[in-house]
Amino acid sequence: MMTAVVAMVLFGCKENPYINAPGDNTFNTDSIPSLALPDPDDPVGFELPAGCLSVYEAIKISDSIGNGQTTTDKYYIRGWVRSFDGKHESGMEQFGNGTFFIAATNDGRSDTKMFEAYQVYGKDGKKFTSLDQVALGDFVVIYGQITNYSGTAETPGKGAAYVYASTNENFDPQIDPTKVTPDPEGANVPDGTLNVYEAIHISDSIGAGKTTTGEYYIKGWICRLDSKNAEGITGNYHNATFYIAPTNDGTTSGTTFEAYRVKGPNKSDITDVNQVQVGDFVVLRAKIQNYSGTAETASGGYIYYSSNPLLQ
C-alpha cells in the first residue's frame, strides 16, 4: 500500500494532555461511493514525500486499528488547515505545539472528514515559536503515528508528531544569530556570558532529557512571563519562571530561553511580582538542560544580575 517509516519517538511535555475532539471522524471507504467525497486538492508544484497519505487514507487507517489504538508505523499525511482546536493558541504559546484539523480540500467540500493534528511540533520536530507559523488555509504534511481516539483520527499528543512541510511563509523562519540588543550601560555581565542563541545551541547539542555538568552565565531580555510565574513568586517557593530573548524590541520573541523556577541574586527569595517584569535585562547563572526540546535552566539556577531596581 505504501512505505511506512518505522520509528517511535515520544517527547515529554510539562502540560497535562488535553482532548477536544469534535464529533465522529470515522470513515470507511468501502461503504461510501467513490464519488461521495472530492479528490484531494493538492497544490501545484508542492513536492510530497513518497507514500504520503491523503486525509481519507489516514482516517481509514485510524478506523481500522480500533478505538484507543495507535499504529506502530509513522506516516506522512497531507491536507489543508481548516480549523483550530480551542486550546491551539495556548498550546502554541506555552508549549510550542499546535492542535488543528486538516481536510483533503480547502473549499469546505470535505470538512466533514478531517484529521486532527494533535499537539504537533513544527519543522524537524522542534517546537513552534510563534502563532503565525500555522494559519487557516495552509497546506501541510504531518509526520507521525496515527491514533484512534474515540473514533477521531489524530496524531498522538505531546509532540510525538510534527509538521514536516508547509506552504506557510513563516513556517521555517530564518533567524539572524547576530541580532542582539546591546547590554544596558552599567550591567554586570561576566566574561564569557552566553546570549540566548548560544544557550539554545548548547541545549540542542546535549539532547532531550540531558543537563550540562557545568554552570553558565546566560543573558537576555525578559520577553514573557510564564503563566505560573506569579504563583511561584507569591507561593511557598519564591522563585520565578519566565522567558528571555536576545533583543528587547519584540523581533526575536520567538527565540527564547526559559528561566525555570529561578531564585534571585545570591539565590535569594523572590517575593514580589514586580521584581521580575517584561523588559528587564537579566543575567542568569545555572546549568543548562534540554527539557523535551525546550532550552532552560536546570534546578538550582538563579538571577545573577537584573536591571530591575527592585531586584538588586
Described by strand count, sense and barrel closure, the largest sheet is: 6 strands, antiparallel
The CATH architecture of the largest domain: Beta Barrel
Which class of secondary structure composition applies to the elements? alpha+beta
Domains, number: 2
Which whole number gives the mean pLDDT?
Answer: 89
| Discrete helix count | 4
Helix content: 10-25%
Give structural notes:
By secondary structure, the protein is of the alpha+beta class. The protein folds into two domains: 5-166, Beta Barrel (OB fold (Dihydrolipoamide Acetyltransferase, E2P)); 196-311, Nucleic acid-binding proteins (OB fold (Dihydrolipoamide Acetyltransferase, E2P)). Helices cover 12% and strands 29% of the residues. The protein has helices at residues 55-65, 88-95, 196-206, 229-234, and strands at 5-6, 73-84, 98-103, 115-120, 139-144, 147-149, 152-154, 162-166, 211-225, 240-245, 257-262, 281-291, 294-297, 302-306. The strands form three sheets. Strands 1, 2, 3, 4, 5 and 8 form a six-stranded antiparallel beta sheet that branches. Strands 9, 10, 11, 12, 13 and 14 form a six-stranded antiparallel beta sheet that branches. It is elongated and about 70 Å long.
